[in-house]
Write a structure and sequence with these properties.
- The complex is a heterodimer of chains A (about 300) and B (about 300).
- In chain A, helix 4 crosses helix 13 (about 260-290).
- By secondary structure, chain A is an all-alpha fold.
- Chain A is about 75% helix and about 0% strand.
- Chain A is built from 13 helices and no strands.
- Chain A has a domain at about 95-250 and about 275-295: MetI-like (MetI-like fold, Orthogonal Bundle).
- Chain B has two domains: about 1-55, no CATH class; about 65-300, MetI-like fold, CATH 1.10.3720.10.
- Chain B is built from 14 helices and two strands, in the order ααββαααααααααααα.
- In chain B, strands 1-2 form a two-stranded antiparallel ribbon.
- Chain B is globular, with a radius of gyration of 25 Å.
- The chains are: A mainly alpha (about 300), B mainly alpha (about 300).
- Chains A and B meet through helix 1, helix 2, helix 5, helix 6 and helix 7 of A and helix 1, helix 2, helix 4, helix 5 and helix 6 of B.
Amino acid sequence: MDEASAPLRGVATLKTRTANPGTMHGAGRWWVLAAVTIGLLLFLAPFVLAFFNAIKTPDDYAAHGPLAIPQSFDLSALTAFWTNVDFTRKLINSTIISAATAVFAVLLSLLNAYAIGIGRIKGGSKILILLLIGIMIPQESLVYPIYYLSKSVGLFDSLWAVIIVFSVLQSAFGTYLLASVMTTFPREIIEAAEMDGATNWQILWTIVVPVLRPTLSVLATFFFIWTWNEFLLPLVLLASNNNQTVSVSMGVLNGQYVSTPTTTAAAALLGIAPTLIFFLIFQRTLTRGVVVGAIK
Amino acid sequence: MANSIERARGQAGYWLYLIPGAIGFVLIIFLPFIMNTGLSFSRWKGIGLPKFVGLNNYIKLINDAAFWASLEHTVAFVVAMAVIPTILGVFLAAILFDYISARFGEGLSSFFRAGFYLPQILPISAAGILWGWILNPFGVLNSILEGVGLHDLAQNWLGDPRLAIGAVMVVMVWLQLGYCLVVFMAGLARVDPSLNEAAELDGATWLQRFWTITVPLLKPEIFVVGLTTTIAALKVFAPIYVLTSGGPDNSTLVPSYFSYYHFFATNRVGYGAAITTAQMLMTIVLGIIFLRVQAHQTENGA
């Protein structure tokens, strides 16, 4: 509080000669609103353009250019791209990988954090430092050995390889977050349950998990989207077309599927659409939870 | 006595919970990390046995102009992913908080916040397709420029070695702004509203309040955002892979793409490993500075 009021004192002594600051804001606020609105429209223009051009005929595009509002309505670019890259398959792969990773990573984080945060095991803080270093190691430093190991254990080009790798990588962050939440968990509740003869395992599932459920679901949402968007490791580990994710399929788009501007727009639109839908559903969770995820 | 035995038994019980996590950590992070570090001292094509060559790869690396170019471009990405989005983000957060939220309601400012955050949740590869479509020689941007009669300004944005890095930087600012904005707006929620009201009554202009109240108050957030985005800038890969493949003429080459290229295109695995090790050392040094300064800050704050 003391610190917070220090700048105020600085301002208070400025005492500039002003007539009435209120009136200026009365008119000025509309200019600010207009400026921010124009800024946002320009910022989001790429999405709108992709949408407009994905539903045009190539002739319409050629005649009126990319900025014109569609004069025609044609889904053939979208359907052509969808069938050419077998987009259904990509969606299924991405969903399986992201959902399984979210579940496993939350479970791993929960178990680790329970031992460190509630169990207060010796060396817990050292484990956290180790995990933090693990988080900071760039994936590039792990990618070749992981590629090599996955080949030698027969998991190369399997969805499982990606699920296992990301469950562990995401759980490093999840453990770090959940452990700090669990250290603030009221001890009396745990001790009371221990008095009643509850085992560690029972305490975890009947007391800790129900209390932490909101945090766990935010964490799972983040793991899902982070995994959905991951690029380098799935690119390396999933070689065959049939196993690729949405994100990887966008990166390796072959020229033949995006030879015209309208099919490229369609490709971009389809790549964006799934996460756009998650965003609309989880908007609040994501924009609030990002503060929690700031360390990542 | 009985109590302490009980305690010990309880502690041992908790250790069991670490087993799955520990196995995962060893197999997916620790072992690959040790292997990669070892490989950086070897010559290896990915088959047979690696041949120990000492510091050879590192010596080659220091004399490789492409490596130094990739570091130079990393600085450009720190500017595009950390410096510019942080500055823009603080400014925009303050405008949304002081004007839009205070005078038009919180709903509208949340709407703007969500809008600017949108690029953050896209697969970067999909964002890359979108921007490739806009920036290619026959793309949207050039159509606009030609449409308004500025034919001379139309360029091969991603294909010209002088322009490509700038074009990719613009895309990165677009991707990163939302993250900075959201963190700063959450930070602004801590501000005591009476602080701003008092300053306003005293006749301080918005800019004066911005510099004397908003920026000092957001210091912890600016610090965290600055460092996390800097670390992200050191590992940028997907935008380069999708937009330019490091080209033209290595003009957008970055360490991550450089190592990927040697791992999987030239099969010079040892050399690729040396690149990633150098890259990782830079990241860890940054991370240690981050933790030190943060610890120092919280100590002073308490």
